[in-house]
Write a structure and sequence with these properties.
352 residues; alpha/beta; MscS-like_channel; Homeodomain-like_sf
Length: 352
């Protein structure tokens, strides 16, 4: 049954708005029909005649006549619809985060999506994965850190960084360290032809050992060039330092070292070489030594994936790389970035 038709009175302002809506080529069809219904109703047309002309059901015409009569132009807008209530809420998210703060089930090294869903009991595993992705939580990746317990950390770090940023005038700053136990591994290398005709290059998992060598290296901070030991056997630290001082005769040397025992208790040697001064990085902070960066470059560009048939071939290979590196060496640029540290709220790091 159609409700009794409501009388519609249009003000001049509302009529102009509705007529403009009907003329506009970008007006949505639903808004166009509602405007025509109200305009025709204001002209005194009946509900059924309006429905026939606009092409809608009479109950639709009656609806918009009543809505405009009660609320004006605002009544022609759609009311907000609540929609379906979400299954999972912010409370569910907090439960997932709270569970991640707890240790995983006994026998497991870390949480996984299925383990979290099983522990929650009423949360689907797909939602768990979506939540973890939206919050950029990676259950596999791990961050590591090292806390130095050196009471003189600030003073030592400032001393080393000061040598990088503002080195003493007419002095040479060197970063010295060793890379021990570099293995001369012989691997079977070549091409593997697949049944589809494609060829892959690679190496066998099997290998043969031909001994190890230790590399002593000194990086000149100002130029980025490398001085290294070329002996076949493992040389002592002071023997290497003698070769370093010989490379810079009559120059003041500031040598940055880590806290290895062989680098300490060398007072007699220092007395014999008054132009040399040792600077030690803080405990557990050897990353301040720039030669460690070069060791990483050496490993990635020269040693990884290479096969050697003898220890001599390995040593010659390292010599060739150092010579090529020195031809294009550039100093590392020491930059300072703002450190943003987030405290562990309510958490305690324990040792197992």
């Amino acid at each position: 049954m159609i409700p009794e038709a409501r009388e519609v009175h249009l003000s001049r302002k509302d009529r102009k708005v509705l007529e403009a809506c009907c003329r506009s080529p970008v007006t949505l069809q639903r808004d166009l029909k509602r405007a025509r219904i109200v305009l025709l109703a204001a002209d005194g047309r009946s509900t059924r005649s309006i429905a026939k002309e606009v092409g809608v059901q009479p109950r639709i015409v009656s609806l918009w006549r009543h809505r405009y009569a009660d609320h004006g132009l605002e009544g022609l807008q759609d009311k907000p619809r609540p929609g379906k209530q979400p299954i999972y809420t912010k409370t569910t998210d907090k439960r997932i985060l709270k569970l991640l703060d707890k240790p995983p089930p006994q026998g497991f090294a870390r949480w996984t999506g299925p383990l979290l869903a099983e522990a929650l009991g009423d949360v689907d595993v797909q939602y768990v994965w979506r939540f973890l992705r939206s919050h950029k939580i990676d259950l596999v990746a791990r961050k590591s850190w090292c806390e130095s317990n050196d009471p003189n950390f600030t003073a030592k770090a400032a001393d080393v960084v000061g040598l990088y940023v503002a080195p003493p005038a007419k002095a040479i700053v060197l970063c010295v360290d060793e890379k021990p136990s570099i293995q001369a591994l012989e691997r079977a290398q070549g091409y593997l032809k697949l049944p589809n005709g494609r060829a892959l290059t690679g190496q066998s998992h099997d290998y043969k050992r031909h001994g190890t060598t230790t590399l002593f290296a000194a990086l000149e901070v100002a130029t980025g060039k490398i001085i290294h030991s070329k002996r076949r056997r493992r040389v002592e630290f002071l023997d290497f330092m003698n070769s370093v001082t010989a490379a810079f005769p009559n120059r003041k040397l500031h040598v940055i070292l880590d806290n290895l025992n062989t680098h300490k208790k060398n007072e007699d040697w220092l007395k014999a070489h008054p132009n040399v001064q040792f600077h030690f990085t803080p405990t557990s902070a050897s990353w301040l030594n720039q030669v460690e960066v070069w060791f990483s470059i050496l490993q990635g560009q020269s040693l990884s994936g290479t096969s050697f048939t003898s220890l001599k071939q390995l040593q010659e290979h390292i010599d060739a790389y150092v010579n090529a590196y020195n031809d294009r060496a550039e100093p590392f640029v020491w930059t300072k970035k703002k450190v943003r540290q987030r405290r562990f709220k309510g958490r305690r790091i324990t040792q197992l």
